[in-house]
Amino acid sequence: MSKYAGEEVLVVPRALLDEVGMFEGIRTEGLEAAVARLLNPANHFFMDRAAAEEDPSHKQLIPYCIFRCGDRILHYTRGKSGGESRLHAKISVGVGGHVNPVDTGGGRTGPAAYHAAVTREIEEELDLPEEHEHRIIALLNDESNPVGQVHLGIVHLVDLKSDAVASREDALSDLGFTPLADLNGPWFERLETWSQFCIRHLSDSVR
After folding, report:
1. At CB < 8 A and 24+ separation, what contacts does 108-114 make?
2. pTM, to two decimals
3. What is the pLDDT of residues 24-52, one digit of tens each?
4. Which residue(s) pair with 157 in the sheet?
5. pLDDT tens digits for range 143-184
6. Which residues is 64 bridged to in the sheet?
7. Concatenated DSSP letters for 141-166?
């Protein structure tokens, strides 16, 4: 049996990304229009994850949520119980995961299903001290490695008033907040690639 146990994940054809405008790294230009295309139910569908992980002709849509408290960013180390073995032991600043058919409950489709997935992933992985709002700040694409070639990140930023955040999953270990300047400095090489892109983008944004 596949290690993904028959999981189905939301994907878009790579051709759609080509139409929207292929890019490498972070993209903020035309963000609203690009996200609208990606989340249009006519442009995406569910696919067996085992097949999707080996199929660069499709991109799995991944909410990638960054939590900020003042000038500090939440980070964690990816443990072995996480779903993506190729990222183990890397430091990440992104919380999130795949969009699954369960997120379409109640007849949700398109953006409604996607945002239900964002909320579900956050609630599964973190115990937060307060109500929170997440806003989309960028798209993220990395063709330099096999993981990136089959995933497309939608980057969310969540501003918190309190840093009293706890992990609800073993896959998120060593949870803590570190100043953005340190993550963009001495910590940088320890970050997974997607986190490196996001930290550079946030650092450039506050200059």
Report:
1. 109/41, 110/39, 110/40, 110/41, 111/39, 113/10, 114/10, 114/39, 114/61, 114/63, 114/154
2. 0.93
3. 999 999 999 999 999 999 999 999 999 99
4. 66, 135
5. 999 989 999 999 999 999 999 999 998 888 899 999 999 999
6. 155
7. E--SSHHHHTEEEEEEEEE-S----E
